[in-house]
Write a structure and sequence with these properties.
Aminoglycoside 3'-phosphotransferase, Chain: A, domain 2, six-stranded antiparallel sheet, Rossmann fold
């Protein structure tokens, strides 16, 4: 669209004199299919297009005003620093004005402009996005969800027919791409998987509703909608225009970010984010719906990319690239539905022996769920992960509860095809034998990794430990050594001894 064919308002908004503040020239215009976005230097102005796509309706001035206000309200949650105000635009003669006292002819959302280099997608492309960022993102998204609203109306969107409707619509809208970027086998098998999931697991969806995991979420949580600005992670541009896209299971949001990282061939970063998130929330059971939503998010990306193939104005080279990208997303959506073999790994060893470091390393390599007893214990005790536990958290009864819950979660998830690392001392034969018995009963592979290091190294690690949720200190070592029970002959075949002062790669083969 040339400047001459733009609406008169947008033409005037491209002129510096339109604004009551200085601007960086030339003013940049970015168009999406639903809005005009003007970058002026310090501020961004967003005008909604008068469109009605069914799932989105901006066709009247009242609706555009309403959705500008909604966009401001909802994005205050994750990026209050960026979203400033909704302003009326008035018309005097042929001159549009920002603000003004006469009746508004349009509404505009005013935001603070930040550099594109702050986007997580840009940081990723520059090779600057690391595991520490993803750990922090996990904690930020967990807090965002903890504060997100829920009520009976919002929870109703977690009912199977409502959740399923979006999946069925995706399949209907993509049948025509079979034989193009989508294959018949992938289409059939992906749909069979989701149909079966909805039919066979109604109790899982009911438990998500009952436990308040259907909330007013972000709805579009990929790397291009997350920024790291002024050392703070901001979640912006959430879905304001469509309730079913926003009133969703928290795992829907989590799946978007994980899928995006995995599509970029960085499963390790997706794993870091996922483990940080679930450790913070304690929502390990929620992982049971994760494969469903991972498949859905990849499928939506495939679908939206496929739509480009129908647009006569899109050049052939772009269509060729879109076909390739869509095909990769369709395959990714299908991959998530394939059955996987779950396994259980028990970490064992003294506090400070390197169990958690080893477990974290293994989790990234294997895409495993890392379940730390420290986190499970604190969730059971109802205290923050970063709060030091009192004596009541470390009674024999509480320890028994912690190990019971740890194993219960491990078995639930391994049966669903997850690799699960149970990170605890596992210093007593009874605890290890119970895990072996459960794994055997459910025909799951089990391994025990015994972490060792010289005592002086362990003491030094414990004395230097900071910024971790574990409460153990060096003065507990003597009693731990005394209480530890040796591996029995029956346990030996499961055990791999690991010296954590030596390189791990060769030892873990």
């Amino acid at each position: 669209m040339t400047e001459a064919t733009l609406p008169a308002l947008i033409q005037q908004m491209l002129q510096p004199e339109f604004y009551p503040h200085s601007v960086t020239e030339p003013i940049q215009l970015i168009q999406t299919h639903i809005s005009y976005v003007l970058l002026t230097g310090d501020y961004v102005y967003k005008v909604k297009k008068p469109m009605n796509f069914g799932f989105l309706d901006f066709s009247t001035l009242e609706k555009r005003q309403h959705f500008c206000q909604e966009e401001l309200r909802l994005n205050q949650r994750g990026a209050g620093e960026l979203y400033l105000e909704v302003l009326p635009i008035t018309l005097l003669g042929e001159q549009y004005q920002l603000g003004g006292t006469v009746e508004a002819v349009e509404y505009v959302l005013k935001m603070r402009q930040f550099p594109q280099e702050s986007l997580l997608s840009t940081l990723f492309e520059q090779g600057k996005l690391n595991e520490t960022h993803l750990d922090e993102l996990g904690r930020v998204v967990a807090q965002y969800h903890a504060e997100a609203q829920t009520n009976d109306y919002i929870r109703s969107f977690g009912e199977v027919p409502k959740v399923r409707a979006a999946f069925d619509e995706n399949y209907q809208q993509t049948e025509k791409y079979i034989g193009g970027p989508q294959t018949q086998a992938q289409f059939t098998e992906t749909k069979q998987y989701t149909d079966k999931f909805f039919t066979e697991r109604p109790e899982l969806f009911a438990s998500r509703i009952h436990n308040n995991y259907i909330r007013e979420c972000h709805g579009d949580l990929h790397l291009r909608n997350i920024a790291l600005w002024h050392d703070k992670i901001l979640l912006f541009d959430c879905i304001e225009f469509n309730e079913p896209f926003r009133f969703v299971d928290v795992m829907y949001d989590v799946a978007f970010t994980v899928m995006d990282l995995e599509a970029r061939q960085r499963k390790d970063l997706g794993n870091a984010f996922l483990n940080a998130y679930i450790e913070q929330t304690g929502d390990w059971e929620g992982l049971q719906v994760l494969p469903l939503y991972l498949s859905r998010q990849a499928y939506v990306r495939a679908k939206v990319t496929s739509f480009l193939l129908d647009d006569p104005s899109v050049p052939a080279t772009v269509k060729e690239e879109a076909t390739k990208t869509a095909a990769e997303y369709y395959k990714q959506a299908w991959d998530y539905t394939k059955p996987k073999l779950g396994e259980v790994i028990l970490m064992s060893g003294l506090s400070g022996s390197g169990k958690s470091t080893t477990a974290r390393h293994l989790a990234r390599q294997m895409g495993a769920i890392h379940l730390r007893s420290d986190a499970v214990r604190k969730h059971l005790g109802g205290i923050s992960l970063w709060e030091k536990g009192g004596d009541d958290l470390y009674t024999p009864e509480m320890t028994e509860k912690t190990y019971t819950r740890l194993l219960e979660l491990g078995i639930i998830l391994a049966k669903q095809g997850f690799s699960v690392i149970l990170d605890a001392k596992y210093d007593r034969q009874q605890l290890r034998q119970e895990a072996i018995a459960q794994a055997t009963k459910h025909q799951l592979s089990l391994q025990i990794i015994q972490c060792t290091a010289p005592l002086e190294v362990i003491k030094e690690r414990l004395n230097n430990r900071t910024g971790d949720i574990a409460d153990a200190t060096a003065d507990l070592l003597a009693s731990q050594i005394k209480q530890a029970e040796p591996f029995t002959e029956e346990e030996q075949p499961y055990v791999k001894i690991l010296d954590t002062t030596q390189p791990q790669q060769a030892q873990l083969k």
